[in-house]
């Protein structure tokens, strides 16, 4: 698995946050407590959310969810919770880097404009 980060110039302010669909899905499931509630919260179908969870479990080679038998509830595994925590730390570091890059680009853009 590889990580790719890209950026673009925009005339509108943007967030420093770089999000990943799996992280959003896991966080929603953790807060909502069931696949059905997470799907509703995300504006997706139950089938879509279930499929994404199964896809990522296969890709990562680990179980992410303890699937409820009859109540429809689902809880994250220890591995999934550790993943969320690690990604949160990485996100904070990345946000600081993105902010520094934005500041540098803005500064250099202003320098170029002032030389006209």
What descriptive keywords fit this protein?
116 residues, elongated, 4 helices, Arc Repressor Mutant, subunit A
The CATH topology label is Arc Repressor Mutant, subunit A
* Largest sheet report: 2 strands, antiparallel
Number of helices: 4
Determine the mean pLDDT. 87
Residue stretches low in confidence (pLDDT < 50, at least 5 long) are none
| Total domains | 1
Strand order of the largest sheet: 1-2
- Overall shape: elongated
Indicate the proportion of strand residues: 5-15%
Number of E-type strands: 2
Please estimate the helix content.
Answer: 55-70%
What is the H level of CATH, i.e. the homologous superfamily?
Winged helix-like DNA-binding domain superfamily/Winged helix DNA-binding domain
CATH class: Mainly Alpha
| Assembly level | single chain
Helix and strand element order: HHHEEH
Account of the protein in words:
By secondary structure, the chain is mainly alpha-helical. It has one domain (21-114): Orthogonal Bundle (Arc Repressor Mutant, subunit A), CATH 1.10.10. It has four helices and two strands, in the order H-H-H-E-E-H. The protein has a two-stranded antiparallel ribbon.
């Amino acid at each position: 698995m590889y990580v790719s980060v890209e950026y673009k110039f925009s005339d509108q302010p943007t967030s420093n946050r770089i999000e990943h669909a799996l992280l959003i899905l896991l966080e929603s499931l953790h807060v909502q407590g069931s696949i059905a509630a997470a799907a509703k919260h995300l504006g997706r179908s139950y089938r879509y959310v279930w499929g994404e969870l199964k896809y990522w479990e296969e890709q990562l080679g680990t179980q992410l969810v303890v699937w409820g038998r009859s109540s429809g509830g689902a809880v994250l595994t220890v591995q999934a919770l550790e993943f969320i925590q690690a990604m949160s730390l990485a996100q904070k570091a990345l946000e600081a880097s993105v902010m520094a890059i934005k500041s540098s680009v803005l500064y250099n853009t202003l320098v170029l404009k002032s030389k006209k």
